[in-house]
Amino acid sequence: MDVMDRIDEAVKGHSVFIFMKGTPQFPSCGFSSRTVDALKQCEKEFGYCNVLADQEIFQNLPRYADWPTFPQVYINGELIGGCDITLDMFEKGDLKTMIHEAVG
């Protein structure tokens, strides 16, 4: 399967998905850590991909979304943004609302 198809399958196969450095249990950078903490506080399950463990995804994800940095958060197949946007949405209460609407 082509790497772009694998990315698309991951994004569309989960209501909430994060491409991050590390794992939710062991984030490998501060941005991923803060973003995944915000997702956890929304109290719904989410999928993830450790981009450090898959160099093809690491190299091609910025091209897929036209977004150059990690982490990348997707809700219902749409890119929400990276760390700053996700944290801003969390602080306003928008992230939890959006996730709960997506997951049910």
From TrEMBL:
<feature type="domain" description="Glutaredoxin">
    <location>
        <begin position="16"/>
        <end position="80"/>
    </location>
</feature>
<feature type="binding site">
    <location>
        <position position="29"/>
    </location>
    <ligand>
        <name>[2Fe-2S] cluster</name>
    </ligand>
</feature>
<dbReference type="InterPro" id="IPR036249">
    <property type="entry name" value="Thioredoxin-like_sf"/>
</dbReference>
<dbReference type="InterPro" id="IPR014434">
    <property type="entry name" value="Monothiol_GRX"/>
</dbReference>
<dbReference type="GO" id="GO:0046872">
    <property type="term" value="F:metal ion binding"/>
</dbReference>
<keyword id="KW-0408">Iron</keyword>
<keyword id="KW-0479">Metal-binding</keyword>
<keyword id="KW-0676">Redox-active center</keyword>
<dbReference type="InterPro" id="IPR002109">
    <property type="entry name" value="Glutaredoxin"/>
</dbReference>
<keyword id="KW-0001">2Fe-2S</keyword>
<protein>
    <recommendedName>
        <fullName>Glutaredoxin</fullName>
    </recommendedName>
</protein>
<keyword id="KW-0411">Iron-sulfur</keyword>
<dbReference type="GO" id="GO:0051537">
    <property type="term" value="F:2 iron, 2 sulfur cluster binding"/>
</dbReference>
<dbReference type="GO" id="GO:0015036">
    <property type="term" value="F:disulfide oxidoreductase activity"/>
</dbReference>
<dbReference type="InterPro" id="IPR033658">
    <property type="entry name" value="GRX_PICOT-like"/>
</dbReference>
<comment type="similarity">
    <text>Belongs to the glutaredoxin family. Monothiol subfamily.</text>
</comment>
<dbReference type="InterPro" id="IPR004480">
    <property type="entry name" value="Monothiol_GRX-rel"/>
</dbReference>
<dbReference type="Pfam" id="PF00462">
    <property type="entry name" value="Glutaredoxin"/>
</dbReference>
